[in-house]
Recover the amino acids of this structure.
């Protein structure tokens, strides 16, 4: 296990009716910028409820509405502008990862003199941010408890993750009942996303990190158990609660610190979203089994076999056979049990015209990954997933 420092200061209020804690925003001032997406929070009533608590607490609310899935830099700029002209004290995101990520970069942009896209390209420029608050409505990204944000500039086909301690939310409200209204498509994609975060940390040659590995396996078992239940029964509280809490832990650093290599399935997926604007979790589900197959060899087999045995109960005694069984179980879970799209064509990627460019960008991030991937490797994985 390598040395690490971990810092997770976000105050979490987890459970039913925890939205009453929005009154705590008063600790950061009076003027709040409320960021939200395309309207789901108006349809399910969270918007009205939140506004009444904020007003009751004496907060003045400004709005940044219409944050896109795969949030755009243009929307971040709009938010920064409101912060500057209105003298905003804090940012509150109510929504999924896209809304929270947008709010994070708005909060940092408000304390930065240049264009906020600089902060996306160079995380060292994020020195401070307005206090960030979140009410989570979709279990997936873990943005509610991590220091990352992912922003796109579709005019350049670029989607990059940034991150800094200043982007850690001050407080996040996690009420699982708020995710009852999440569609089957987003429930499945969210489950694939949180599983992928766990995989990215889990598949590593680092030895001696048993806490992180066993914790990762436990998270995966929880996701595999409750993902299908949430699909079949969207208002099953325990299913939604376990998915929500597992998603936060998959990326808050606990399974990453001390053992994780550089992530590589995420960079490959971010290119798909940058060029084709697809749903992040669907892209990950499509790429993951293809990636696992690509990296499977005698050296990686013991690690993939441990996953197969400890998560799926694979009984094969030979490592290569067990690993193959685990990959097949993963494939079946995503595509049969969760009904996720099986290949790139199913999400509208019908030719290879951008593979070369996407692979060039993605492979640059995969130099220190579990198995380092060259541009050619990434193209091969895209082809396998086609
Ligand atoms: O926009 P609204 O109307 O709110 O609808 C959203 C959106 O259409 C809807 N939704 C959210 N909560 C709902 C709901 N619909 C009904 N009921 C609810 N309670 O779901 C759709 C997708 O929302 P989005 O926020 O885009 O999904 P997600 O949470 O999966 O976020 C995806 C974004 O996060 C980034 C991804 O790349 C992508 O841009 N990621 C962020 C990470 C982080 N900050 O650490 C890490 C991840 O790996 C990921 O890259
Ligand atoms: Zn992700």
């Amino acid at each position: 296990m390598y040395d690490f420092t971990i810092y997770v200061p976000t105050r979490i209020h987890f459970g039913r009716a925890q939205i009453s804690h929005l009154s705590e925003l008063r600790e950061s001032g009076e003027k709040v910028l409320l960021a939200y997406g395309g309207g789901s929070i108006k349809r399910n009533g969270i918007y009205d409820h939140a506004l009444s608590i904020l007003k009751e607490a004496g907060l003045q609310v400004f709005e940044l509405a219409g944050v896109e899935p795969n949030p755009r830099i243009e929307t971040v700029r709009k938010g920064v502008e409101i912060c500057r002209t209105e003298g905003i004290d804090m940012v509150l995101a109510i929504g999924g990862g896209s809304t929270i990520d947008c709010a994070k970069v708005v909060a940092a942009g408000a304390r930065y003199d240049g264009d906020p896209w600089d902060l996306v390209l160079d995380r060292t420029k994020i020195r401070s941010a307005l206090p960030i608050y979140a009410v989570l409505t979709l279990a997936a990204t873990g943005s509610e408890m991590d220091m990352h944000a992912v922003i796109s500039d579709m005019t350049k086909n670029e989607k990059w993750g940034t991150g800094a301690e200043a982007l850690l939310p001050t407080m996040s409200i996690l009420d699982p009942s708020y995710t009852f209204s999440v569609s089957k498509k987003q429930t499945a994609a969210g489950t694939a996303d949180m599983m992928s975060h766990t995989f990215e940390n889990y598949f590593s040659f680092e030895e001696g990190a048993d806490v992180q590995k066993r914790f990762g396996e436990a998270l995966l078992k929880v996701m595999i158990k409750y993902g299908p239940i949430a699909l079949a029964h969207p208002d099953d509280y325990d299913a939604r609660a376990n998915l929500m809490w597992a998603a936060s832990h998959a990326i808050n650093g606990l399974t990453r610190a001390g053992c994780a290599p550089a992530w590589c399935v995420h960079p490959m997926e971010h290119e798909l979203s940058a060029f084709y604007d697809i749903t992040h979790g669907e892209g990950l589900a499509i790429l993951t089994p293809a990636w696992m197959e690509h990296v499977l060899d005698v050296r990686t087999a013991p690690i993939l076999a441990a996953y197969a045995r400890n998560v799926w109960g694979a009984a094969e005694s030979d490592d290569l056979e067990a690993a193959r069984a685990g990959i097949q179980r993963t494939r079946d879970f995503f595509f049969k049990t969760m009904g996720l799209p099986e290949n790139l064509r199913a999400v509208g990627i019908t030719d290879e015209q951008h593979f070369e460019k996407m692979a060039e960008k993605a492979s640059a991030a995969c130099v220190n990954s579990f198995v380092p991937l060259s541009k050619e490797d990434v193209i091969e994985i895209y082809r396998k997933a086609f």
Summary: Residues 141, 193, 196-197, 266, 280 surround zinc ion (ligand 2) (CB under 6 Å).
